[in-house]
Structure to design on (266 residues):
């Protein structure tokens, strides 16, 4: 696979998702499954992959980027090893803009041709299906045990991480805040993947409308959107999301990000 840039959750959300991903169906024995099944790995969304290692450190490779919210949409059982069982992520404009900006920046500034297949998704488990139907059965177990909740009245799913030891506030995660970008060497088996560098993303000012871009371009001195009132401009009132809160059901509804719709070519 070469090298990859991952979008990784904030630390509390990372820990909660990691507990869910450590779940194993019972009775479980490493002798029951292929040695490639159920490897341990970090929760992430792959933003881009490329074949050669970058010559610059991550801080110079990427511009200043803001933390980006991620929303879970559905569970997908795939036919390939790396697509075994994953969470399909909502194609919000913010997330797609972030991916497009990074891929474009790598190509334009650093001459790195990056790709992002099956974007966006977050893998939960990798299974080398030695017995036909193992992946489907795992998906059924996650639903029947209450670890995956498919909500009927609203769009999206929720993950219950408390059944595997996460804090009570993670009983129904509907997404997370992408708070770091990791550079990862994905050569070899999954458990051999190595994190080479980590870069924390900028915390977004909650007063800035969610319609503003989720990155600040090439100028690291810019800390607010150009039309923010703090810079002397005027910004119309708009809904916003508090970026540092974990994503779970609340009594107060959270305003979702704007869905992405491609333009009609006609």
């Amino acid at each position: 696979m070469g090298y990859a840039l991952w979008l990784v959750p904030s630390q509390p959300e990372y820990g909660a998702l990691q507990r869910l991903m450590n779940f194993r169906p019972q009775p479980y024995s490493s002798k029951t499954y292929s040695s490639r099944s159920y490897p341990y790995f970090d929760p992430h969304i792959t933003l881009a992959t490329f074949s050669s290692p970058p010559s610059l450190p991550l801080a110079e490779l990427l511009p200043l980027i803001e933390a980006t919210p991620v929303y879970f949409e559905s569970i997908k059982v795939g036919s390939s090893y790396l697509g075994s069982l994953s969470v399909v992520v909502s194609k919000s404009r913010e997330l797609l803009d972030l991916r497009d900006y990074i891929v474009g920046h790598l190509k334009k500034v650093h001459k790195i041709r990056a790709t992002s297949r099956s974007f966006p998704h977050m893998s939960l488990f990798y299974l080398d299906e030695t017995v036909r139907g193992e992946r489907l059965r795992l998906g059924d177990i996650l639903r029947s045990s209450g670890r995956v909740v498919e909500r009927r009245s609203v769009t999206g799913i929720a993950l219950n991480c408390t059944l595997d030891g996460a804090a009570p506030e993670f009983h129904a995660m509907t997404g997370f805040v992408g708070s770091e970008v990791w550079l990862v060497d994905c050569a070899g088996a999954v458990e051999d993947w190595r994190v080479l560098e980590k870069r924390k993303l900028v915390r977004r000012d909650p007063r800035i409308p969610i319609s503003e871009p989720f990155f600040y371009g090439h100028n690291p001195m810019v800390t607010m959107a150009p039309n923010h009132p703090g810079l002397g401009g005027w910004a119309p009132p708009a809904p916003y999301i508090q970026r540092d809160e974990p994503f779970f059901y609340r009594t107060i509804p959270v305003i979702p990000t704007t869905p992405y719709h491609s333009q009609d070519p006609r």
